[in-house]
Structure formats: structure tokens, C-alpha cells
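Structure in, sequence out. Go:
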């Protein structure tokens, strides 16, 4: 007994010491890294660097250890970027904006929203300049709004048109005996196509070509207007890679001057007639300029739904009915909230979770105006939760639609036979069962197919009612077909093209309020106990570490497989990986 007491005392002492060490580390780190107050100096130039990941909404952690342990990650919030640019218009200490970013880590719709805000900023009479050693395509699209564009003498402009790539796994499945059993509705439901074929179907190629052309048209229209280059000439430049070196880029008017960075800084100094004090967009946001201050009593609630839709609570990167529905109820019951704007940035996901969110929005809509703002994506389940709004506002480059559903289950029957594994089942009843070690039987297929068809019918009916269209009319543009915001305006899936700010203004009009402030939802809280899940010296997430270790193609495969693990039940979602390059 004495031995056990000593052992328990030692174990208890170890954990107490570990706890005290953790607290000591937090205190020391807090003292060492206590943030200094950001002061905006006179003759400041706001530097716009979008290399960090841009999310629609990235609230600060409600956790005293979050900043010390770097739980917040290296993220930028679109709503804060837009507010910062708006504040910079009237800030006498900000003389202009310098776009200086190697990459734009944002979606096309987010990039367009920032670009439009910069165009609006120029109306104040302040300058917007851009400099970089090289410009990838999205970066050039953003930078083309500038009064003048500069590039390094050995730099390039990667201007070549849009493309995307989808990986197909049918040969892999046949070779290794691991496959996905798929049951779907929608001839365009390309989320499951890579598991059924070795090459792209004509229907899928048709829809991808259509929305790529629509996005490219929007981008070239904007570039043409600012750079005074015809759309026809821009396509020739893209076809012949006429931005492949700095001098050729200047010759074709993609840039204004070819200079080194120090020469660019000299030009800024001449422009403002003083040595510029550079302040990053992150620091400017920290100074308090990342929000529009207002003392108005009336509020417009903006509820952010970002990420894939999974059944459950959800978090900042995953839409779950738990957090979202709490936010909707909170906004509905707040008498000061006069209207609700749902900001959707999602490829869809769980049909069940989508239906539960749809129902909560339906209840809220009976009491207050409901407007949807679409970001980069509002497809499949993302459109499901949007379709019953009073008004839907999409960015022209939003990818939406994809009204279709599917069920998908892994199966290793062939592999099991190859390596000598036999699975035997025992059941009390003859209901339809499924085992990954056995081929899918007809009874299970029929039951699941019935579920898929039922949910598709419900989905189309929800859209028909919400959009005041006939079922047949919705079905004709559904079938899993993906559309851009511009195309969706034509076929009736959205009401207007515009930004989140436009959607908020529309909500205010519907609510008949002139003076208001915006209240963002939901609140993401990390409790004290969860702080211990993060090692003090390991501040990168598993996702970030894998991105560093794996190359781009390897990470794509990992990401696809990892998402498969989280798919439960019938899905209303678009393809897993659809990156517009």
C-alpha cells in the first residue's frame, strides 16, 4: 500500500508540475510578446499583402491563451480588409495604398470584392500603386486596379487564362481493389465522377468550360477597363504568353514600368513628397481600423456560414447546424436586429444538416427580412441553405447551383479477396445492410437510391418555393449543374450581383432602417481545457504542417481522402477539389 501511495503521489506531483510549468510558460510568453499599441504615423502608405489565407470571417479567439499560443493562426478576414480600406479613404495619415503581395491567398470572388473596394478607394483622390517581383494570375487581376503597375526587371506576368484539373481514381480502384460505391441524382454531379470513370464526361466538361469562361470574362472586363487594353488583345496576350518577361509585359501594356524595389520606393517618396512610413494591412487592422464604428441602436446581423457542411456543432472552418442555428436564433430573438444577412461560402455537404439550417432560416424569415450574400462558393448544400431567402446577392464570379445529391460508401471487397479476408455477417432481420467487405446488394442499393431521390425532390422543391419557380423549371437547371453568379442571375437562381456590403444595404432597405450597425455571428469560443490540446512549441496546425511537408499534388490527394472520412449520410455538395488556376 505504501508503494501505491508513493506511486500515486509521484504521478500527481508530475501532473501538478506540468500544469505549473504550462502556466509559467504562458505568463512569460505573455510578458515577452505583449502586443504594443499600433500607431499610424503621418505619411503612411498602407501595404496590401494577401499572402496569408483570406477567410470571409476570422474572429478573434475568446480565450486568454489564444494570442500567446498562436491559436488564431495566420489569417485575414475579408470583412476586416474591406473595412480597413474604407477607413483608409478618410484617414489623413494614409496617403495611398501599395499592393505588394507574392500570392493572393483568396478565392476569385473575394479577390474581386477587394479589387472593387480599391477602385472605390481611388475615388478619394488617393493613389493605388502595385509592385512585385512577379505576378501570378490572381495577383495581376487584383493589381490591375492600380494607377500604375511596376515589376522587377527579371520578373514575369503569369497571364494565360483560366484552367482547372480534376483527378480520376477509377484505374486506382481497379488496381488495388479499393473503390467507392456511388448512388447519385444529377447528370452534372461531378463530385462522384472521378470514382466512376477514368476521364471527364462531356456533361462535366461542358459545365466547367462554361463557368471558367464566365469567370474569365469578368476578369478580362475589369482588367480591360483599368489597363485600357481591349478584351481581344488581352486574349492574344494570354494565348501567346506575352507577359513571360518584364520587357514584353511592358511592351504589351500589362505593366507601366520595370524597376527594382528600391526604385519603386523612391517613386512613392516622390509621390507623397516625404519618406513613406509603410504599415501592413494586418497592423492597420490591429490599430482598430478593421471595423466601421457606429453607435446606432438598430443592427443588421451578418451570419457567416463558411466551409463544408457537416452534421454537428461546427466551427470556424466547418458549417454545423449547431453553431449556425444558435446564431440564427440569437439574431431572430434580438429586438435590435432588424434584418439578417447570411453570408455563404460553402461547397455544400450533409443534406441533413443543410435541411436543419434551412428550417431555422425559414423560421427567422417569418419575423425578419432575410438576405443571402454569396462568396466564392454557394453550391449544392451551400445553395440549399440560401434558396429560401427574400433576396439572394451573388458576386459575379461566385460558383453556385450544383443542385443535386449523392451517397457514397467505401468498399474493399476485391482487396479483401486478394489478401484472403472473408467477412461473415449475422443479423436478426432481413433489412438492407451494408458491409465494406461485401459487394453492395440490390436491396441496399434500392433503399439508398430511394433516399437519394427523395432528398433530390425535396431540394428542388425547396428551391422552387424559395425562388417562386416551377419544379420543372428548377429541375431543368439543376441535375448538379454548376453556374457562376453572373449565369445564376440569368437563370433565376439569384436576384442581384454585388458584394456583402450590397447585401447588407439591401437588408436595411427591406427592414426600412436608415441608420444601423453590423453585428457579426457566430461567436467561436475555445474553452480553457481545449488550450491544453496545443503544445507550447508546436503552433502550426496539422493541416499547415502537411502543406509544408507535401507538395501541391500530394496534398490534393490527401485532402480528398481526408474529406471522404467525414462524409456521413446523403450529400448535397460539389466536387471535392476544384481549384481555378
Amino acid at each position: 500500500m505504501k508503494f501505491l501511495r508513493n506511486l500515486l503521489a509521484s504521478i500527481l506531483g508530475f501532473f501538478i508540475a506540468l500544469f505549473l510549468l504550462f502556466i509559467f510558460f504562458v505568463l512569460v510568453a505573455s510578458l515577452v510578446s505583449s502586443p504594443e499599441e499600433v500607431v499610424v504615423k503621418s505619411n503612411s502608405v498602407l501595404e496590401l499583402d494577401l499572402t496569408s489565407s483570406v477567410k470571409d470571417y476570422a474572429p478573434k479567439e475568446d480565450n486568454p491563451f489564444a494570442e500567446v499560443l498562436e491559436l488564431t493562426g495566420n489569417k485575414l478576414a475579408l470583412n476586416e480588409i474591406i473595412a480597413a480600406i474604407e477607413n483608409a479613404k478618410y484617414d489623413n495619415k494614409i496617403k495611398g495604398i501599395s499592393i505588394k503581395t507574392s500570392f493572393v491567398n483568396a478565392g476569385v470572388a473575394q479577390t474581386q470584392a477587394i479589387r472593387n473596394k480599391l477602385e472605390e478607394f481611388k475615388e478619394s483622390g488617393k493613389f493605388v500603386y502595385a509592385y512585385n517581383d512577379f505576378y501570378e494570375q490572381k495577383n495581376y487581376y487584383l493589381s490591375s486596379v492600380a494607377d500604375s503597375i511596376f515589376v522587377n526587371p527579371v520578373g514575369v506576368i503569369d497571364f494565360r487564362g483560366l484552367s482547372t484539373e480534376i483527378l480520376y481514381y477509377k484505374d486506382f480502384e481497379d488496381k488495388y481493389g479499393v473503390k467507392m460505391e456511388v448512388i447519385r441524382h444529377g447528370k452534372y454531379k461531378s463530385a462522384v465522377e472521378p470514382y466512376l470513370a477514368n476521364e471527364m464526361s462531356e456533361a462535366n466538361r461542358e459545365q466547367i468550360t462554361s463557368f471558367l469562361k464566365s469567370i474569365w470574362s469578368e476578369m478580362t472586363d475589369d482588367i480591360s477597363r483599368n489597363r485600357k487594353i481591349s478584351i481581344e488583345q488581352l486574349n492574344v496576350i494570354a494565348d501567346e504568353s506575352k507577359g513571360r518577361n518584364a520587357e514584353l509585359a511592358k511592351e504589351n501594356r500589362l505593366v507601366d514600368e520595370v524597376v527594382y524595389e528600391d526604385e519603386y520606393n523612391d517613386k512613392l517618396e516622390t509621390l507623397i513628397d516625404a519618406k513613406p512610413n509603410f504599415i501592413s494591412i494586418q497592423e492597420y487592422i490591429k490599430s482598430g481600423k478593421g471595423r466601421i464604428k457606429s453607435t446606432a441602436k438598430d443592427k443588421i446581423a451578418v451570419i457567416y456560414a463558411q466551409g463544408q457542411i457537416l452534421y454537428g456543432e461546427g466551427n470556424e472552418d466547418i458549417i454545423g447546424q449547431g453553431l449556425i442555428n444558435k446564431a440564427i436564433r440569437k439574431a431572430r430573438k434580438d429586438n435590435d436586429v432588424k434584418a439578417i444577412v447570411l453570408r455563404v461560402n460553402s461547397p455544400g455537404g450533409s443534406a441533413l444538416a443543410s435541411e436543419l439550417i434551412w428550417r431555422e432560416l425559414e423560421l427567422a424569415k417569418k419575423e425578419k427580412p432575410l438576405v443571402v450574400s454569396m462568396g466564392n462558393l454557394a453550391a449544392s448544400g451551400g445553395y440549399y441553405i440560401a434558396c429560401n431567402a427574400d433576396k439572394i446577392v451573388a458576386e459575379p464570379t461566385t460558383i453556385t447551383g450544383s443542385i443535386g445529391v449523392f451517397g457514397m460508401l467505401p468498399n474493399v471487397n476485391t482487396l479483401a479477396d486478394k489478401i484472403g479476408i472473408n467477412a461473415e455477417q449475422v443479423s436478426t432481420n432481413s433489412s438492407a445492410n451494408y458491409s465494406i467487405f461485401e459487394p453492395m446488394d440490390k436491396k441496399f442499393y434500392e433503399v439508398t437510391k430511394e433516399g437519394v431521390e427523395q432528398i433530390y425532390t425535396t431540394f428542388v422543391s425547396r428551391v422552387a418555393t424559395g425562388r417562386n419557380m416551377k419544379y420543372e423549371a428548377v429541375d431543368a437547371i439543376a441535375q448538379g449543374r454548376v453556374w457562376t453568379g453572373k449565369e445564376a442571375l440569368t437563370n433565376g437562381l439569384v436576384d442581384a450581383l454585388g458584394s456583402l456590403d450590397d447585401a447588407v444595404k439591401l437588408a436595411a432597405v427591406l427592414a426600412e432602417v436608415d441608420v444601423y450597425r453590423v453585428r457579426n455571428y457566430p461567436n467561436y469560443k475555445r474553452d480553457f481545457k481545449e488550450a491544453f490540446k496545443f503544445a507550447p512549441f508546436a503552433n502550426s496546425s496539422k493541416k499547415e504542417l502537411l502543406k509544408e511537408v507535401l507538395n501541391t499534388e500530394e496534398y490534393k490527394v490527401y485532402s480528398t481522402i481526408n474529406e471522404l472520412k467525414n462524409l456521413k449520410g446523403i450529400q448535397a455538395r460539389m466536387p471535392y477539389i476544384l481549384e481555378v488556376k
